């Protein structure tokens, strides 16, 4: 009798947890695959940031194969747009005790959520994992925070320079010669921009006008600037180097060389949708653009980012995290190991164009596409991702909001950076988590 009551209690808890998870979602922003568990089966929940179709197809295959190799296991999959949508959903899930077992999310989240105790330290699991020794050291280090491993980097996201060779040729530019400096970039972008009246229909350069911080950071770094002194919690994005870079970008936006967009949303990202001649974008954008537009095969160039005072670019990292709330931690890490296997790492490259993160695949990766993949590795080697501070998301949100104000003429680029830095300094006492 007691066993029967215990079983009924367990089933009720499972159902209630499932209901709570569904309730905290946004029906417009989230799509779930396999939303219900079946009696007697273990359920693993997996969320990933992003809504692009190619990666959805990739995860659908991985999950199906994982379930086939793990009888009795069901993986519930959800996808949510980057930025505020994911932050809101995660906050609600952790507050209600319905956080996912495994999460694919950004480097910017490491310090904040590790400090809150929401990410599970992975050292005990990783120390027994044979694949750990094969990971590139720079990639492995992205998941470290306060001497503990909280995330496993699996999708490097460096920004490389992409350009449409066909549009260059049509505009009288050398299709094999991308812009080499800021001055050439501005000149080429203006020449390549196409307008219908006052409306830009083909962007000369894809500049995100919402959530623009990753694009902006590349130019600040190239100009010798820094984002923040993490040790002193002192913002540095109101420095002369940062202001100069900001003014450069703002001036281009005001000239109408871009189309208003939020590049964190797949349906708005200009280059993969054939609406931009030049872009700082990911290797995946290079692959997906040609996959979705077969007529562009061989007509897209890729190189390392422009160098100004220094060679630099934004290089983010998508990592796999385990929730501290997970009741299936061993199974969760098993799923993570599957994703990080040599075979699956290569599959990810072939299907999505993502750089490999295993030393044993490095030579094959560069040899497969020497021109493109060497540029990608260069970008990863000198790129810089989001700052590892607990308030990283809030800081970049402030920067993006003030940039947007400058783009739409409510303030200058210089004032935008000064206002953003002043706002952060004011809020820091409330944001710093010890």
Automatic annotation (TrEMBL):
Keywords in alphabetical order, please. Signal
Question: What SUPFAM superfamilies does its record include?
Answer: Periplasmic binding protein-like II (SSF53850)
Family annotation (InterPro entries): Bact_solute-bd_prot1, SBP
Annotated signal sequence is 1-22
Q: Which domain of life is it from?
A: Bacteria
The record ties this protein, via PANTHER family, to:
ARABINOSE-BINDING PROTEIN-RELATED (PTHR43649), DIACETYLCHITOBIOSE BINDING PROTEIN DASA (PTHR43649:SF12)
Protein known as? ABC-type glycerol-3-phosphate transport system, substrate-binding protein
- Native source organism of the sequence: Paenibacillus catalpae
Lineage start? Bacteria, Bacillati, Bacillota, Bacilli, Bacillales
């Amino acid at each position: 009798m007691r066993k029967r009551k215990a079983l009924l209690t367990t089933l009720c808890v499972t159902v209630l947890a499932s209901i709570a998870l569904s309730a905290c979602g946004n029906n417009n922003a989230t799509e779930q695959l396999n939303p219900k568990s079946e009696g007697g089966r273990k359920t693993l929940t997996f969320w990933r940031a992003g809504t692009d179709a190619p990666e959805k197809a990739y995860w659908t295959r991985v999950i199906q194969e994982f379930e086939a190799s793990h009888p009795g296991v069901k993986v519930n999959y959800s996808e949510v747009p980057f930025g505020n949508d994911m932050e809101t959903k995660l906050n609600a899930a952790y507050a209600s005790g319905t956080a996912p077992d495994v999460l694919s999310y950004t480097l910017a989240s490491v310090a904040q959520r590790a400090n809150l105790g929401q990410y599970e330290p992975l050292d005990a699991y990783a120390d027994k994992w044979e694949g750990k020794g094969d990971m590139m050291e720079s990639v492995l280090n992205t998941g470290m925070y306060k001497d503990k491993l909280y995330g496993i980097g699996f999708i490097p996201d460096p920004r490389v320079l992409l350009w449409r060779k066909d549009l260059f040729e049509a505009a009288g530019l050398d299709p094999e010669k991308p812009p080499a400096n800021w001055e050439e970039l501005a000149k080429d972008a203006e020449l390549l921009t196409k307008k219908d009246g006052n409306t830009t229909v083909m962007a000369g350069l894809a500049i995100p006008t919402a959530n623009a911080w990753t694009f902006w950071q590349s130019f600040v770094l190239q100009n010798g600037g820094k984002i923040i002194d993490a040790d002193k919690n002192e913002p540095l994005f109101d420095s002369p180097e940062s202001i100069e870079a900001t003014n450069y970008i703002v001036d281009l936006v005001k000239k109408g060389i871009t189309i208003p967009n939020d590049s964190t949303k797949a349906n708005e990202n200009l280059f993969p949708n054939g609406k931009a001649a030049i872009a700082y974008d990911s290797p995946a954008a290079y692959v997906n653009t040609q996959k979705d537009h077969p007529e562009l095969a061989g007509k897209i160039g890729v190189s390392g980012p422009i160098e100004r005072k220094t060679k630099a670019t934004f290089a983010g990292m998508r990592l796999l995290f385990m929730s501290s709330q997970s009741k299936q931690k061993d199974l969760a890490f098993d799923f993570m190991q599957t994703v990080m296997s040599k075979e699956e790492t290569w599959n990810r490259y072939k299907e999505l164009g993502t750089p490999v993160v295993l030393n044993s695949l490095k030579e094959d990766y560069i040899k497969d596409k020497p021109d493109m993949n060497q540029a990608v590795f260069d970008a990863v080697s000198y790129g810089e991702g989001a700052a590892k501070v607990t308030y990283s998301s809030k800081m970049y949100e402030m920067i993006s909001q003030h940039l947007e104000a400058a783009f739409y003429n409510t303030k200058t680029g210089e004032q935008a950076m000064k206002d953003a830095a002043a706002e952060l300094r004011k809020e820091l006492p409330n944001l710093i988590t010890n």
